[in-house]
Design a protein that fits this description.
The protein is mainly alpha-helical. It is built from 1 helix and no strands. The N and C termini lie far apart (30 Å).
């Protein structure tokens, strides 16, 4: 299975805490957490 979810958090630490609550981890899934960056020229 694949997909993505965008969350808004005050810090990476908070984002990781939210990600650790994902039920997908309970069935052996894995997650990648990364910072979203604004692309220059795209608003």
């Amino acid at each position: 299975m694949s997909g993505y979810t965008i969350i808004e958090a005050d810090s990476m630490e908070t984002a990781l805490k939210i990600a650790k609550a994902c039920p997908f981890l309970d069935i052996g899934g894995s997650l990648e957490v990364s910072e979203l960056m604004q692309m220059p020229g795209y608003n």
